[in-house]
């Protein structure tokens, strides 16, 4: 009898650890989530949503890692290369191609095929999620589409109308600029992708019948848009805009510097994404600022609306892919997405977002409705990411800064940009 009891005890001791390791058997699973575009308020709302999820799923815990903004993408890449503990991570439009090429990221198609909210995703959510490899490598959390922020009080004081064309923007910015008062017209982005505005201006001049709308660095024949003489003209225009209407130190400004320059009363006009709405509402007095549709090209009468995006993906090496995908779907459902987008001020991914909150169709967001309702003036472009783009973009950023500072000429720089794009088409 003692031997039988001992045998049963040994079996129980063998089975219990196995059961404890199963989620269904009460074992804990810790999901590690890593942000890229971090800020404290955004992390706070992510934490709230994660806590609500873990309350409903007590076998799950969620750890959120928020690296410093400037080095976050590099941190994520290192974690992927080293196969560090990570189950959910932020994927951006400028990182998804590289991650997928290196097999760092898991396609989500099988996990989300029966998701009840898949049908309410707006078309741009499907397009951007599957832009690389025609697979759902991420679920976007929102879209970044630029509009113009301006100092309403300064324009009213000077009797200047809100500019509606690019040349009108230059003239208004120049009129506002008064270095003796520490006041400037244009909020230049000198680093971290600032060169890309040259491409936007060129696309505005070429128009929607020439630009490849799903591969906007190229025209519909596959030639780089930088092959056109308008590209040299607009590179020179950016140099003039910088020299005549921006502080000299703006050549080193990134996103946070731009926002600070605008909100603290240094600059009058800022082209930026919707997340800046929350910053302005927090840091500026009502009535001192407003938003408007983007100025259009003086010749073509158009301007491209670039769709920037980011979202959540699952590392290929994650040990908890199913659970990670389940949390991403929870985080991305209409209610939680609206909650996240309200805090972060990005454009939501579900078609019923405006029904859930008027914030997305009025006030500072009204220019988005205007631009989307004027397709003859504002045409939508969705960037196609190539693995080679990362290094090319770094080179272009350096050369752009050199043109602004007078170290390089516009024409040979633009020729080099065209050659680099044509080589990878």
Characteristic terms for this protein:
425 residues; alpha/beta; D-Maltodextrin-Binding Protein, domain 2; four-stranded mixed β-sheet; 12 strands; globular
Could you describe the 3D structure shown?
β1 (29-34), α2 and β2 (60-65) form a beta-alpha-beta unit. This protein has 2 domains: 27-144 and 308-356, D-Maltodextrin-Binding Protein, domain 2 (3-Layer(aba) Sandwich), CATH 3.40.190; 147-306 and 367-424, 3-Layer(aba) Sandwich (D-Maltodextrin-Binding Protein, domain 2), CATH 3.40.190. It has helices spanning 2-20, 40-56, 72-82, 96-101, 109-112, 123-129, 152-158, 166-176, 196-206, 229-245, 255-263, 276-283, 321-331, 334-344, 353-356, 366-372, 389-405, 410-424; strands at residues 29-34, 60-65, 88-92, 105-106, 139-144, 147-150, 184-186, 267-272, 290-292, 303-306, 308-315, 378-381. α10 crosses α17. It is built from 18 helices and 12 strands. 45% of the residues lie in helices and 13% in strands. Residues 1-25 have low confidence and may be disordered. The protein has 425 residues and is of the alpha/beta class. Strands 1, 2, 3, 4, 5 and 11 form a 6-stranded mixed sheet that branches. The termini are far apart.
Shape: globular
Amino- and carboxy-terminal Cα gap: 78 Å
Q: Indicate the CATH class of the largest domain.
A: Alpha Beta
Overall structural class, as computed from helix and strand content, comes to alpha/beta
The residue ranges in which pLDDT falls below 50 over 5 or more consecutive positions are 1-25
Task: Please tell me the overall pLDDT.
Answer: 91
Number of helices: 18
CATH H-level homologous superfamily name of the largest domain: Periplasmic binding protein-like II
Whole-number count of domains: 2
């Amino acid at each position: 009898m003692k031997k039988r009891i001992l045998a049963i005890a040994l079996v129980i001791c063998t089975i219990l650890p196995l059961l404890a390791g199963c989620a269904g058997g009460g074992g804990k699973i810790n999901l590690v989530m890593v942000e890229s575009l971090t800020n404290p308020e955004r992390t706070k709302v992510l934490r709230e949503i994660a806590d609500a999820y873990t309350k409903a799923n007590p076998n799950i815990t969620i750890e959120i890692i928020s690296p410093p903004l400037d080095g976050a993408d590099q941190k994520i890449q290192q974690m992927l290369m080293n196969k560090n503990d990570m189950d959910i991570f932020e994927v951006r439009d400028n990182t998804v191609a590289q991650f997928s090429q290196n097999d760092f990221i898991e396609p989500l198609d099988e996990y989300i095929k029966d998701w009840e909210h898949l049908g309410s995703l707006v078309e741009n959510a499907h397009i951007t999620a599957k832009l690389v490899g025609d697979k759902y490598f991420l679920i976007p959390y929102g879209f970044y589409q630029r509009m113009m922020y301006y100092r309403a009080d300064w324009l009213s004081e000077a009797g200047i109308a809100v500019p509606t064309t690019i040349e009108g923007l230059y003239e208004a910015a120049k009129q506002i600029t008064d270095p003796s008062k520490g006041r400037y017209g244009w909020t230049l982005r000198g680093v971290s992708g600032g060169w890309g505005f040259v491409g936007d201006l060129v696309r505005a001049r070429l128009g929607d019948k020439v630009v490849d709308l799903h591969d906007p660095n190229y025209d519909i024949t596959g030639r780089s848009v930088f092959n056109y003489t308008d590209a040299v003209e607009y590179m020179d225009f950016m140099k003039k805009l910088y020299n005549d209407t921006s502080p000299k130190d703006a050549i080193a400004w990134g996103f946070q510097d731009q926002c600070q320059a605008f909100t603290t009363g240094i600059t009058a006009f800022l082209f930026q994404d919707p997340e800046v709405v929350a910053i302005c509402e927090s840091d500026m007095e009502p009535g001192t600022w407003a938003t408007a549709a983007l100025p259009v090209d003086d010749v073509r009468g158009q301007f491209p609306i670039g769709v920037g995006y980011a979202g959540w993906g699952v590392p290929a090496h994650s040990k908890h892919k199913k659970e990670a995908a389940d949390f991403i779907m929870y985080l991305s459902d209409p209610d939680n997405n609206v909650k996240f987008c309200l805090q972060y001020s990005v454009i939501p991914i579900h078609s019923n977002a405006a029904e859930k909150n008027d914030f997305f169709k009025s006030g500072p967001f009204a220019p988005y409705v205007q631009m989307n309702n004027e397709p003859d003036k504002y045409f939508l472009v969705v960037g196609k990411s190539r693995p080679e783009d990362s290094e090319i973009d770094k080179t272009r950023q350096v050369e752009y800064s050199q043109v602004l500072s007078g170290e390089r000429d516009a024409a040979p720089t633009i020729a080099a940009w065209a050659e680099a794009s044509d080589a990878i088409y």
